[in-house]
Amino acid sequence: MDTFTIPKELAQKDDLVIVPRKEYEALLELRRIKEFIPTAAQRRALVQAERNFKRKKTLSYNELVKRLGLAN
Predict the structure, then answer these.
(1) Which of the residues 2, 28, 47, 53 has the least number of beta carbons within 10 Å of its own beta carbon?
(2) 8 Å CB contact between 53 and 59
(3) Contact residues for 4 (Cβ-Cβ < 8 A; gap 6+)
């Protein structure tokens, strides 16, 4: 088993995180993904969809498929 000595100044400042290399590389990959920033119209549409959901004016996936005539 390997032994590591961690400098006290790192441990005291909460500046030390130990993560397996593959997980670290996966986290680095996430930084490359561009964050979605909705437009004003998309935000308004989301607010409207949330209102409809609260008022129970929505359909489940199965209900939608049935009403569109796509069900077997």
Answers:
(1) 2
(2) no
(3) none
